[in-house]
Task: inverse folding
């Protein structure tokens, strides 16, 4: 089986989640091979799990006033604060 590697890039939260969703959708349709992607976040961001209630998880006004982006993931899980880190996404169909 052939895998695809997307090397480290830094993007804003919205672009990062759009890439993750596009890779996921193409992989499950077998239009792309399984993919491992490494990425960073600029500016800092909070990602919210698909099933979470935004108002119950984070202080939206504080995020806005400090320039922290807020984005919802297409996956579940808890809220995650992303700052100086290397994130990875693994997608296989």
Result:
């Amino acid at each position: 089986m052939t895998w695809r590697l997307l090397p480290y890039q830094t993007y804003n939260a919205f672009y990062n989640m759009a890439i993750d969703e596009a890779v996921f959708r193409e992989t499950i349709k077998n239009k792309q091979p399984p993919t491992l992607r490494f990425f960073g976040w600029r500016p800092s961001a909070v990602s919210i799990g698909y099933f979470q209630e935004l108002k119950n998880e984070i202080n939206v006004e504080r995020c806005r006033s400090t320039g922290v982006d807020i984005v919802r993931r297409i996956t579940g899980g808890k809220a995650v604060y992303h700052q100086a880190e290397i994130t990875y996404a693994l997608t296989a169909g």
